[in-house]
Amino acid sequence: MLGKKEAMPLRLKLIILAVGLALALMLGPGLLKIAAKIYTEWLWFEELGYPSVYQTRLLTAVTTFLAGGLLASVALAVNWFLFPRLFSKRRIVRTLRLGRIGILIGVGLFITFIMADILSSHWLDFLAFRHAVPFGLTDPIFGRDVSFYIFRLPVYDLLAGWFLALAILSLLGALVVYGTAGALGDRGPIAHLSVLGALTLALIAA
Q: What is the DSSP string of 81-107?
């Protein structure tokens, strides 16, 4: 029994290490390519005498990436790990400790990176939103300045779709966790999944 208990943490460490290495192999080449592109563009803007322009672009992209990564990681951690531990019986905690937690962490990190990259790729939309100026031309139907549809509406649509995708991923992950543990019929998981389902429907209807 003691030997079995001692082997569990080692198994988890090996799984997490394997997932980390797999993610590094998957994302590493892409990150190196991005770094090379940033360095090349920095040199080009510096040669033109407009390094501040590229600084603004880069800062906006990095800020939106970090914000998206933080929101996605918190949402997935809460719905895939925290709530299942709070709302369910011990068998879910035990199931997560049997190695699946490493896979969940790896999938969660990959999804977090993708969600953050989606926001970051729209850095120009966020800059336009921040520096929007009125056109002085009013839409006759809704009474809004036309600049709203050019500068602000694209960001609202982007965020609505982004949060909808995050809600769906949170729901699917929670379903997998509860289903793997055979806890879909428990009161806590039902309440949790119902809230996520209602949130998803609300975002679809928005």
A: IIHHHHHS-HHHHHHIIIIIHHHHHHH
pLDDT (tens digit, 9 = 90+) per residue, 61-77?
A: 999 999 999 999 999 99
Nearest C-alpha neighbor of 80 from the set 99, 65, 96: 96
What is the full DSSP assignment across 106-132? HHHHHHHHHHHHHHHTTHHHHHHHHT-
Q: Provide the pLDDT for residue 161.
A: 96
**Buried b or exposed e, range 65-88, using 16+ CB within 10 angstroms:** beebbebbbebbbebbbebbeebb
pLDDT in tens, 130-162: 999 999 889 888 889 999 999 999 999 999 999
* Residue 89, H or E segment: none
Lowest mean pLDDT among 81-85, 88-92, 105-109, 138-142: 88-92
Pull the structure tokens for residue 130. Answer: 């921040």
| CA–CA dist 162, 173 (Å, integer) | 17
Cβ neighbors of 206 (< 8 A, separation 6 or more) are 160
Q: What are phi and psi of 145, to 5 degrees?
A: -65, 140
73 and 112 in contact (C-beta within 8 Å)?
Answer: yes
Please choose, from the candidates 173, 164, 175, the residue with its C-alpha nearest in 3D space to the C-alpha of residue 201.
164
